[in-house]
Design brief:
It contains 16 helices and 77 strands. The strands form 18 sheets. Strands 53, 54, 57, 59, 60, 63, 64 and 76 form an eight-stranded mixed sheet that branches. Strands 66, 67, 69, 71, 72, 73, 75 and 77 form an eight-stranded mixed sheet that branches. Its main location: membrane.
């Protein structure tokens, strides 16, 4: 995926080199000798048999793709025992445009110091002629073995055998670290006179010095003039090749007392004055062979040796024993300046791991300094600047000394708001999370840390790469970008730690946020390289390029972030991936640089390092296409049909399309022709369109050739078709683009490539810009007035109409079952054309807008939409651009009655308006307000099955013909059904139970009730009467207890009936058996009369004012009667006589004879069978 802007991903240049030698590890654009070059570092390149690293130069022109090696691996320092193998020269590159030089570094350059190998690092300036000019090694310090040693050797006749002394000299020389920058040795032999065998620096290696020592013969002599030998060695030996600053060491070897002992005191004093360290070796062979006491000799030799004697004085029994002190002597000599027991200072500094040019020199990062806590060094024309270790102690405390902060992994500089130069350096391993410090550094070595920025995530390598940016090119730093290439998020190494720190005068830098990249950046090491480049899109702000060398499975990619004001846009504007450039690229984006315009288009071309390759990504110029549309005439006059198209009279017009090219880059396009295309669309998104291009102009897109600063136009004809909609302007769209998007300049993506314009219609009014309409609104509803309702056959019998005559006034009736209401409206325009005519409709909350329907096949359409999401407001626009003069439109508004809001009125307020000022605004508003009465659809019924009870005399029980579980209980059930669409609140239910006699005897009572399907109802039972006093009462003359013969108990209920609901109301009662047995009656009916009615203030009305429903409870009682004994006896005798007469009659008829005959017939057969068995 290539998200392209003006880095050309189709045309690029690749310089190839050795992958094994890391060609492309660093890149720098460089200008020298009147030509433009690309410098490419290859830190593993070999020079001879040593892998020194090197730099290549590649010409930045389109004709050559060959790079030449600069052979900088020959870089060397004098007077140093250097090791250049694996020094990684080219690991850093920094170009200096001021003098066309550049600096390259090999941070692993090492030198020998005794038995140690110190990697202090080395850099070198390379001149404009690509020659090594000035080595830079600020971390290099004198070795501890930087010594000049003069051996003063006694060669008098008493020394015997000589080869033992010679072997000792050879052996001790092999222990010395002889070489440039280390130890050099001279030998003086004395006896009666002094001879220089060879001088300091005469031989540069151990082998050479040993070979010279093998040729030293014993000079002999009768005297041992030790003072003379010391004076000659001091005054002459150290001057023959001696080095300033070298430690002076003299080794005196003798076997006897000196013959010039009076001069010995002065000789030793002069040596001390000249800072010569004296080692004295007494060979006692001569004394032992002759049995002489050596006490005076030993005293003299100890006098010669520097203090303390135990460190500088040796004695051996004879010449052959000299070899026994070789190791001890070597150790004592090279412990003078040794670092045993001390921590590293700059010995492993690796100076040049990072580099940055500043005004007065070059700033170098030294990650290995001070036990790998790191340091920042500086090289100026006046010398090196090395801040002391104590400068870092506050931000890099001693307790974290073993963490290895790697300060100097990256270095840079910035200009504060006050114009001061400050420095910045990264320590990506500080406390495992990383740190960046902002500091000042004076050439005296005084380093002051002003601010520290801390990383947040362990192992993210925060501060490994950083760059300060002056976005608006005002000479002051605006932001500091700090990378954390190994930042993890949600289990992925996203590298999204591209932290922006905004510069402010008060706090230096404040975290502003992080740059955002695509999902491709997982495990990409985003931020491994950062490069500030000049303005690319002509807005005057510098841009940032970020490398992600491991993206796309290690192929690599880079991201371009654009500057804006004093910061960066957080979202990248272009992504260039190696996969889209060349299939063979790897680690594309590991280094970046862009300061030169190689292809002459006024824009910087980008240099990108990859593994074994360096790529030049060409930039492309940025242009904008300026477009204008000019219509002739300026407005559409539909009243003037001036031409024919397709056999119809139409209005013909033309439009001039003019395009020009505006270059956003420094280099103009006056000398370059650029082909552009444009496409013209009339009446966009309208089908069929009201405007049509002439047949000869319909070929799209069309092409124009533009030149920078020039303008080109084309005239295109079109016609306006007959349409009813000629008030709404024509939408005209012009789209432009480059004919060849892969060549030449690119379009500015922030500049629109679409131009939209409107072509208005002439309004047809007397004043060209103002019309004076006269809108008139008429309306009425389809609701029946109360007079109309009561005048109908169906309505005359309803309670509304029977109350005090027919209601007068504006009262209207909502019939039962009605869910909708229709408003019939008519809008007229008696004035000029009304543009933007609309009708605003607002209603009471009990009306819901349903639809608006235009009637009479009008060509005028009306469209409605809700205002501010309010359901009771609508704004309806006349869909035609204007309402013609003397035109009208009829429409119906349909509303639904709300089920949630119930009011005793409706209101519909309609107001019409237009863009013009209405001539007579009084008739623009129609307010419909109607008080309402709602016809109910209520069915009130009772349980049709009467209740019958049989009361047994002198018993507490009764029998009932009903299905009640208990013989003395009963239910009175009523059904109230609301079939209407509106709920019925506050329905009053009243039941009167005539259950009390005139004497006060209560025959039954209501004990409980139940209401189903009527939530929120409230009922009250009749009060409980006292039943202790029951009076005998004869009711045999009454057939029914009612309002005339009894006293009632009243049951009340206030019910709320939902719409389309059926409410069941049951009254539960119990017979008063004791009372019923006390009073006398044979059959008695107890009347229950129930009614429903509405509140007087209710907007609803019933068909009957107060419908009544009656239920009768029938009671019957059995009387007790005395039966006479004679009646019982007579009845029994009469029954027996009747039975006898019946039997006699049957006998006479032969009933009993038929049975006997059958038995006789069956008897013989039975007998026969028995006989056979016998």
């Amino acid at each position: 995926l290539q998200l392209c802007f003006n880095f050309d991903t189709k045309n690029f240049k690749v310089f190839s080199g050795s992958k094994e030698n890391q060609f492309g590890y660093t890149v720098q654009q460089h200008e020298a000798g009147g030509r433009q070059w690309l410098l490419v570092g290859a830190p593993l390149e070999s020079t001879g048999k040593q892998q020194t690293g090197d730099v290549f130069r590649c010409p930045l022109d389109r004709n050559s793709a060959n790079c030449s090696r600069l052979n900088l691996g020959r870089l060397s320092l004098d007077n140093v025992s250097e090791r250049k193998d694996n020094m990684r020269l080219g690991m850093t590159l920094t170009s200096n445009p001021r003098d066309s030089s550049f600096v390259t570094c090999g941070p692993l350059w090492s030198h020998e110091c005794g038995s140690s190998l110190y990697s202090t690092g080395i850099c070198s300036r390379v001149s404009r002629t690509f020659k090594l000019s000035h080595p830079i090694a600020p971390a290099l310090q004198r070795c501890e073995t930087f010594m000049d040693i003069v051996i003063v050797l006694d060669g008098s006749n008493s020394i015997y055998p000589w080869y033992e002394v010679q072997d000792f000299v050879i052996t001790i020389l092999q222990k010395f670290y002889i070489g440039p920058g280390q130890t050099q040795v001279g030998v003086v032999q004395y006896g009666s006179k002094v001879v220089h065998e060879f001088g300091l620096g005469e031989y540069q290696t151990v082998e050479e010095v040993v070979q010279a020592a093998r040729g030293i013969d014993q000079r002999g002599g009768e005297e041992t003039r030790t003072a003379l030998g010391i004076n000659v060695g001091r005054s002459e030996g150290f001057k023959r090749g001696g080095r300033p600053g070298a430690k002076k060491v003299m080794i005196v070897i003798t076997d006897g007392e000196s013959h010039d002992s009076p001069q010995l005191v002065q000789a030793v004093a002069d040596s001390e004055r000249d800072n010569v360290t004296m080692y004295a070796i007494a060979v006692l062979g001569y004394y032992n062979r002759r049995g002489i006491n050596p006490e005076a000799f030993l005293k003299e030799i100890k006098f010669i040796a520097s203090d303390p004697d135990e460190q500088h004085f040796f004695n051996v029994s004879d010449e052959s024993s000299l070899k026994d002190i070789v190791d001890a002597l070597g150790e004592r000599i090279f412990s003078l300046e040794g670092s045993q027991g001390r921590r590293f200072g700059l010995q492993m500094a690796q100076a040049g791991f990072s580099s940055h040019l500043v005004k007065d020199g070059v700033l170098l990062g030294a990650v290995g300094a001070y036990d790998w806590n790191g340091a920042v060094l500086k090289e100026t024309k006046h010398g090196k600047v090395v801040p002391p270790k104590s400068s870092y102690k506050d931000e890099f405390p001693e307790e974290l000394k073993n963490h290895g902060a790697y300060l100097g992994y990256s270095v840079g500089s910035l200009i504060s708001s006050r114009g001061a130069q400050l420095y910045v350096a990264g320590a990506p391993r500080f406390n495992h999370t990383g740190k960046v410090i902002v500091f000042t550094l004076k050439n005296t070595g005084n380093l002051t840390i002003l601010q520290a920025l801390l990383g947040e995530q362990i192992g993210s390598y925060f501060g490994s790469v950083l760059i300060s940016m002056d976005i608006d090119d005002d000479g002051q730093t605006d932001i500091l970008v700090v990378a954390a290439p190994m930042f993890y998020s949600q289990g992925w190494e996203t590298g999204r730690g591209l932290h922006l720190h905004c510069h402010s005068p008060q706090t230096l830098f404040v975290l502003q946020g992080a740059l955002q990249v695509s999902d491709h950046s997982q495990n990409a090491r985003l931020g491994s390289a950062l490069a500030q480049i000049p303005d690319m899109n002509g807005d005057g702000f510098r841009e940032l390029v970020v490398g992600a060398p491991l993206e796309d499975d290690h192929q690599g990619a880079l991201y371009v972030f654009y500057g804006h004001q004093k910061t960066l846009q957080h979202r990248f504007r272009q992504r260039v991936s190696a996969a889209g450039l060349s299939s063979g690229l790897q680690y594309f984006g590991q280094s970046l640089h862009g300061v030169l315009d190689a292809n002459g288009d006024g824009l910087v071309d980008l240099a990108v390092g990859a593994l074994g390759a360096a790529v030049i990504v060409w930039s492309r110029g940025v242009v904008r296409i300026q477009a204008t549309l000019t219509f002739e005439p300026e407005k559409v006059n539909m009243f003037n049909k001036d031409c024919r198209r397709g056999g119809k009279e139409v209005t013909c017009m033309s439009v001039s399309v003019c395009l020009s090219l505006d270059s956003r880059t420094k280099r103009g396009t006056k000398s370059q022709d650029v082909a552009v295309w444009f496409s013209l669309v009339l009446d966009e998104r309208r089908f069929p369109p009201r405007a049509v291009l002439d047949e000869s102009e319909r070929q799209q897109p069309r092409t124009l050739v533009l030149q920078g600063g020039g303008r080109s136009c084309q005239r295109i004809g079109f016609s306006i078709q007959e349409t009813a909609d000629y008030g709404r302007p024509l939408a005209v769209l012009l789209e432009t683009g480059l004919q060849s998007p892969d060549d030449g300049p690119v379009l500015d993506p922030d500049w629109p490539n679409v131009l939209r314009a409107e072509l208005p219609f002439w309004n047809g009014c007397e004043q060209e810009d103002v019309c004076v309409p006269d809108l008139i609104l008429h309306s009425h509803t389809d609701l029946m007035s109360a007079q109309q309702f009561c005048g109908s056959r169906e309505g005359a019998s309803w309670s509304l109409c029977s109350q005090q005559g027919v209601p007068q006034g504006s009262l209207h009736v909502v019939e039962a079952g009605r869910r909708r209401m229709v408003v019939f409206a008519r809008l007229e325009n008696q004035g000029e054309n009304a543009y933007g005519a609309s009708v605003h409709i607002s209603t009471s909350s009990n009306l819901l807008f349903s639809s608006l329907i235009v009637k009479d096949q009008s060509d005028i359409q009306i469209e409605c939409h809700s205002e501010d999401r309010l359901a009771n407001q609508r704004s309806c626009t006349i869909s035609a651009p204007f309402m013609k003069s003397l035109s009208q439109v009829s429409f119906h508004l349909e509303f639904e009655f709300s089920r949630l809001v119930f009011l005793d009125h409706i209101r519909v307020l309609m107001a019409t308006s237009s863009e013009g000022e209405d001539g007579f605004p009084d008739d623009n508003i129609k307010d419909i307000f109607l008080p309402l009465k709602y016809q109910t659809d209520l069915l009130f019924t009772r349980d049709p099955n009467p209740r019958r009870f049989q009361i047994k005399s002198s018993s507490s029980s009764s029998s009932s013909s009903s299905s009640e579980d208990q013989a003395d209980t009963f239910n009175l059930t009523y059904n109230i059904q609301n079939s209407g669409v509106f709920p019925l609140p506050d329905v009053l239910f009243r039941a009167e139970i005539w259950a009390v006699t005139r004497a006060g005897n209560q025959l039954l009572n209501i004990t409980d009730y139940s209401v189903l399907q009527a939530p929120g109802s409230h009922c009250s039972l009749p009060p409980i009467r006292s039943t202790n006093q029951v009076a005998a009462e004869d009711l045999t003359h009454l057939s029914q207890l009612n309002q005339s013969t009894g006293v009632s108990e009243v049951f009340h209920c206030r019910l709320s009936l939902p719409a389309s609901s059926d409410v069941r109301l049951s009254l539960k009662g119990r017979l008063q058996l004791h009372t019923l047995n006390t009073v006398s009656f044979r059959s008695l009916e107890v009347l229950t009369s129930a009614s429903v009615q509405l509140e007087a203030s209710s907007p609803m009305f019933l068909q009957e004012e107060r419908p009544l429903r009656q239920i009768i409870v029938e009671l019957r009682k059995d009387e007790d009667h005395i039966v006479s004994v004679w009646i019982v006896v007579g009845s029994s005798v009469g029954g027996l006589l009747l039975l006898g007469l019946l039997v006699l009659g049957l006998w006479k008829l032969g009933f009993f004879n038929r049975r006997r005959r059958q038995e006789e017939e069956e008897q013989p057969s039975t007998n026969g069978k028995a006989a056979e068995e016998l």
